[in-house]
Write a structure and sequence with these properties.
By secondary structure, the chain is mostly helical. It contains two helices and no strands. The protein has one domain (1-74). It has helices at residues 3-26, 29-74.
Length: 75
């Protein structure tokens, strides 16, 4: 995950926590719920970015093995 993505997700999570806390203090259930939704969205985005990074890493390893196999056939 890029640093920019980490910053965006952290910002969204922190804003969500602030909304949830403010909603809790003021008794505003809608604001509290919006905060929880923002936090969940940030967590989901983190998980998606991590999965994307893992898939790219695996694809790179497969490509490297395929290149090695092809180069072995050429010899």
């Amino acid at each position: 995950m890029s640093l920019d993505d980490k910053i965006k997700n952290s910002t969204k999570d922190i804003a969500g926590k602030a909304k949830e806390g403010l909603g809790d203090v003021t008794g505003d259930e809608q604001l509290k719920t919006e905060g929880k939704v923002n936090q969940a969205a940030a967590s989901a985005q983190d998980a998606l970015s991590d999965a994307k990074d893992a898939a790219a890493e695996k694809a790179g390893k497969v490509a490297d093995k395929a290149k090695g196999f092809i180069n072995g056939l050429k010899k």
